[in-house]
């Protein structure tokens, strides 16, 4: 039967594709070739070859970005209590603890967004947050507890907040473009929280901590 041969051949291709990464790479090459006929030339000019799982539209890129920040927030909620434990200024400790509670709510909000767009809430490692958290750890290891470490914790935290502000700003824009207005509203609440967290950190730094940290310099000189 001619009709039976066709689907059989199709499923064989599928099974082979999921078998090995080598086949996946070939599939990616084939996909890339669809858009760029001169893939050899373009890659030599620094054009990155897409994976077989590469997003094909804004919708997929949106979902990938949600998975990324979902991982990031989950990693952050575990790291923040450690930062609070290493801080000595009460205002900073309170600020970090408050943002830990907010981060828990932000995770729940992301789960709401996944549900709204009909996708499973899945976390995918965010290399940027992983790096920012490692840098925070490095800063703590490089400072004695006190105002200098507090200043370092603020510096590391603000880098994190800025990453989140950029991420949620983008997610809001993507959601609006895709017509996910309810999701956009939810993401916007988090965006505003991240901006406020950044302001709180700046105030903590300028009100006392940086001056106390600078005083430690003078004491050392004296
Ligand atoms: Fe956050
Ligand atoms: Fe990320
Ligand atoms: Fe850095
Ligand atoms: Zn927004």
What's this model, at a glance?
With about 220 residues, this protein is mainly alpha-helical. The chain is built from eight helices and no strands.
Share of β-strand residues: under 5%
Q: What is the H-and-E element order?
A: HHHHHHHH
The description of the largest β-sheet is: none
What's the total number of strands?
0
- Poorly predicted regions are 1-27, 29-41
Q: What's the CATH architecture name?
A: Up-down Bundle
**Structural domains: how many:** 1
* Outline: elongated
Bound molecules: fe (iii) ion, zinc ion
Look up the CATH topology: Ferritin
Mean pLDDT: 85
Termini separation (Å)? 94 Å
The level of helicity is over 70%
Task: Name the features.
222 residues, mainly alpha, Ferritin, 8 helices, binds fe (iii) ion, binds zinc ion
3D structure, described in words:
The structure is a single chain. This protein has 222 residues and is mainly alpha-helical. It has one domain: Ferritin. The chain contains 8 helices and no strands. The chain has helices at residues 2-19, 21-35, 39-44, 58-86, 90-116, 127-141, 147-177, 181-221. Helix 4 (58-86) runs parallel beside helix 6, helix 6 (127-141) packs antiparallel against helix 7 and helix 7 (147-177) packs antiparallel against helix 8. The longest helix has 41 residues, at 181-221. It is elongated, with a radius of gyration of 23 Å. It starts with a helix and ends with a helix. Mean pLDDT is 85; it is low at 1-27 and 29-41. Bound molecules: fe (iii) ion (FE) (3 copies) and zinc ion (ZN). One fe (iii) ion binds at residues 68, 72, 126, 128-129.
């Amino acid at each position: 039967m001619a009709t039976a041969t066709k689907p059989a051949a199709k499923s064989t291709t599928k099974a082979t594709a999921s078998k090995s990464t080598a086949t996946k790479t070939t599939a990616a090459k084939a996909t890339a070739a669809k858009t760029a006929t001169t893939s050899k030339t373009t890659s030599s000019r620094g054009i990155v070859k897409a994976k077989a799982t590469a997003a094909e539209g804004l919708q997929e890129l949106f979902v990938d970005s949600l998975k990324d920040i979902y991982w990031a927030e989950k990693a952050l909620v575990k790291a923040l209590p450690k930062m609070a434990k290493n801080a000595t200024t009460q205002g900073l400790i309170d600020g970090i603890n408050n943002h830990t509670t907010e981060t828990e709510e932000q995770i729940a909000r992301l789960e709401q967004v996944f549900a709204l767009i009909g996708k499973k809430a899945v976390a995918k490692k965010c290399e940027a947050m992983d790096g920012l958290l490692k840098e925070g750890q490095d800063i703590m290891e490089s400072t004695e507890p006190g105002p200098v470490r507090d200043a370092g914790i603020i510096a590391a935290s603000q880098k994190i907040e800025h990453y989140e502000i950029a991420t949620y700003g983008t997610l809001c824009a993507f959601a609006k473009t895709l017509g996910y207005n309810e999701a956009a509203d939810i993401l916007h609440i988090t965006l505003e929280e991240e901006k406020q967290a950044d302001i709180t950190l700046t105030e903590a730094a300028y009100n006392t901590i940086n001056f106390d940290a600078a005083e430690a310099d003078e004491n050392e000189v004296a």
